[in-house]
Amino acid sequence: MIGLTENLPKRDLEQTAIQAIRRHRRLRDAAEASYEERRLSPSVTACDIMGTARIAYVMSCRVADWHNGSA
Fold first, then answer.
1. Which residues of 34-70 are buried (b: 16+ CB within 10 A; e: fewer)?
2. Which of 13, 16, 35, 65 shows its CA 20 to 30 Å from the CA of 59?
3. What percent of the chain is modeled with pLDDT above 90?
């Protein structure tokens, strides 16, 4: 990053830094809101999302990998 900005005028560098800080804050705020929303919502298990048959299939493939030494 330093190499990319070393020849920028100070004003441009400041604007780039300000934009990056604002973007970081927006992303942080969105992540915190999402975390809080998920924390307060009822728990969802993988089986609720994928179905028990799919989970069983994935687990059986994983066990086969372990036995074959692929894991």
1. eeeeeeeeeeeeeeeeeeeeeeeeeeeeeeeeeeeee
2. 35
3. 27
Rounded-to-integer distance, Cα 18 and Cα 41, Å: 34
Residues 6 or more apart whose Cβ sits within 8 Å of residue 46: 55
Q: What is the pLDDT of residue 39?
A: 76
What is residue 7's DSSP assignment?
A: T
Tell me the C-alpha distance between 34 and 31, whole Å. 5
What are the residue ranges spanned by the domains of the chain? 1-40, 45-71
- Please give the distance of CA 9 from its chain centroid, rounded to a whole number: 34
d(CA 23, CA 17): 10
